[in-house]
Amino acid sequence: MGFEIYNSLGKQKEAFRPIEAGKVRMYNCGPTVYGRAHIGNLRSFLFADLLRRWLEHLGYDVKQVMNITDVGHLVADEEEGEDKIEAQAKRSGTDPWKIARAHEAQFHEDLAALGVRKASVYPRATDHIEEMLEMIAALIEKGYAYEVDGNVYFDVSRFERYGKLSGNRVEDLDAGARIEVNEEKRHPADFALWKHDAAHLMKWDTRFGPDGFPGWHIECSAMARKHLGDHIDIHTGGEDNVFPHHECEIAQSESFSGGPFANYWMHAKFLQVDGGKMSKSLGNVYTVQDVVDHGYEPRALRFTLLRGHYRQPLNFTWGIMEDSKKALDGLDRLYEKLTAVAAGEGGATEAGAGAELVAKAREEFEAGMNDDLNVPRGLAAIFGLRGEVNEDRLGRDAAADALHFLDEVNDVLGVIRTEREAGEDDAEIDALIAARKQARADKNWAESDRIRDELDARGILVEDGAAGTTWRRK
RNA sequence: GGCGGCAUAGCCAAGUGGCUAAGGCGACGGAUUGCAAAUCCGUUAUUCCCCGGUUCGAGUCCGGGUGCCGCCUCCA
Predict the structure, then answer these.
(1) pLDDT at residue A284 in the model
(2) Per-residue model confidence (pLDDT) at position A80
(3) Residue A454 belongs to domain spanning
(4) Could you give the CA distance from residue A372 to residue A49 in angstroms, rounded to a whole number?
(5) How far apart are CA A47 and CA A167, in angstroms?
(6) pLDDT attached to residue A421
(7) Å from the A379 CA to the B74 C1'
(8) Are A358 and A434 in the same domain?
(9) Which of A246, A287, A242, A245 is closest to A268 using CA atoms?
(10) Which regions of chain A are under pLDDT 50?
(11) What is the helix, strand, coil percentage profile of chain A, to 5?
(12) A151 - beta bridge partners?
C-alpha cells in the first residue's frame, strides 16, 4: 500500500500521486513573525516537518517552501484590528523591520531546538512585493480583480469554485452581520489584494499609488508560484487557515494560472491546553522556553506534539509532557539494548533469531505512516518490538537489523537519542561509580547507598545490571 | 445565524460494520535485586458521551441531544 493522504479538498483519503514522478513540491504556511512561536504554532510546523520527512523516507525529492510573513496584513477588509508587527513598532518606537527580523531569527532557533529540518526556502513576504504586484496586475487584467482608489479587491463572484475548500457559501458568509459594509467592495466577501494607508509604516510606492501594502492572502500565492510554480503537490497549514486564507489563495492562484493550484491540502488540528483553548489570560500560551524551564528537553516536546494524529485535537498538559518523557526514555533504552545485542552482548543465542519480528515491526510502522501519517499506529509497532527485544527474542544479526530499523524510524520521527553525549563531569561520576562498586564488594550498603543518593541529587540514575553497573542522566 | 471537526480506561491515544476494543504513561500484585533502578509475568474499558434508528451484527452507518474545538475578524 502506498502513501494515502487525507485531502481537505474533498474530505477523504486519497493515494498520493506526485505531479512529477519522484518529486514533491510542497508549500507550508509559516509564521507571522510578530512574536515567539507557541506550542500550538509549533504543532503545525512539526506536522509539516513530519510530512516532509516521510515523503523523503518514501524516496521523494522534496522541495519544501515555508513562508515568513513579515509584513502586516493589516485587517484585510476593515480598519479595526491592528497590524501586529506595526503595533509593536509603535509601542516600542522600534523599526518594524527590526522587530520582524528578530522574531524570524528566534523562530529558526526554536525550530532547530526541536530538530526540525530546514525547508528548501523560507521566503519573506517583503522580498516578494514585485511578484505579488505582477499577479495582482494580471488578475485585474483578466477581470478577476478591480481597483478602487488605491485599493485592489478580488471579485469572488468571478470565481465559481469559491467555497469549495471550506464548504462556505458566499451567500451565507455575511449572515453573522459582523462585517461592516465596505462601500468600496462590490460584494462583502470580496477580499483585498492590495491596500492603501498612509499611516502604515511598511509601505510601497506602486502603480496603485504611494503608501500601499499587500493584502494577506496574496503573499502565499505569489511565493508559492515563485518558488514552486503554478501547480504544486501539497499545501499545508493549521485548521484555522482553511477559511479564508486558503480559500482565497485558491481563488487567486487558479484565476491567475487558469489551472489547478495545489493537489492536496492538509490541515493540522489545533492544539488545546488543559482541555481548552490556549489564551494569554489563562497564562497557558507556552513556548519552547517554557518547556525547557519546566525541565524538559525540546525533543520531549517534539514527541508530545507528534505522538498524536495531526488531524485529531491534541490536549497539552504538563502531565502529558511527563508521560512523553517516560515513553521516550523507554525508546532510548531500547536503542541502547539493541546496540549491546548487536555487539554480541546478551540477546538470543542464535544470531538470526527474531528476524521476522523486526520485519513485522517495520511493516506495521510503514503501514501506519502510510495511512495519512498515523503516528500512533507507527509507535505501537515500535513499542511492540521493544517487548520482544527486552525478552531477548532477538539474536545478534536481528538486533543489527532492528537497530537499522530504529535509525530509519528516527530519521522520520527524530526523537530517539541514539548517541550518548559526553558530559564534563563524566570522569567524576565514573570515579563515584567505582567507589560505590568497591563499597558493594565490601557489602558496605550504607556507603553504597550514600553514593547512589549523592549521584541521584546530581541527576544521575544508577542501575545495577547483570553485566555491571551503568548510569544515565535523568 | 452559517460552515466544519472531535467525544474510546485514572491520563494520553489507535481502531477500515463481524474473531477476545492496539499501543504508551500511571496504578496494583508477583519475579528479579543487598535495597533500588531497569526488565519480565499478571491485573487494570462486558464496553466505546446520552437517546433513538438502520442491520443477522455498530465504538464504527443514520437522526436528535449534550459538551469541547476551529472558521465566518489577525491567529498554526
Answers:
(1) 86
(2) 40
(3) 426-473
(4) 14
(5) 24
(6) 80
(7) 37
(8) no
(9) A242
(10) 73-81, 176, 178
(11) 45, 20, 35
(12) A148
Q: How far is CA A384 from CA A142, A304, A308, A360, A361, in A?
A: 58, 19, 17, 10, 7
Shortest CA distance to A328 belongs to which of A362, A295, A304? A304
The neighbouring-strand residues paired with A262 are A232
Peptide bond into A244 cis (omega under 30): yes
List pLDDT tens digits, range A250-288: 999 999 999 999 999 999 999 999 888 887 777 889 999
Q: How many domains does chain A have?
A: 3
* Protein residue closest to B38, using CA and C1': A463
CB of A113 within 7 Å of some strand B atom? no
Give the list of residues 6+ apart from residue A170 with CB closer than 8 angstroms, or none. A156, A157, A162, A163, A187, A189
Are both A403 and A452 inside the same structural domain? no
DSSP A57-95: HTT-EEEEEE-BB-S----SSSS-S--HHHHHHHHHT--
The answer to whether residues A226 and A20 touch, using CB atoms and an 8 Å cutoff, is no
pLDDT digits (tens, 9 = 90+) for A138-194: 999 999 999 998 999 999 999 999 999 998 888 777 654 545 567 788 888 899 999
Is the CB of A278 less than 7 A from some atom of nucleic acid strand B? yes
The separation, in Å, between residue A398 CA and nucleotide B60 C1' comes to: 38
> Strand B closer than 7 Å to the CB of A456?
no
Q: Assign residue A354 the CATH number of its domain.
A: 1.20.120
Q: What is the pLDDT of residue A200?
A: 81
In CATH, what number is assigned to the domain containing residue A101? 3.40.50.620
* Residue owning grid cell 488543559: A274
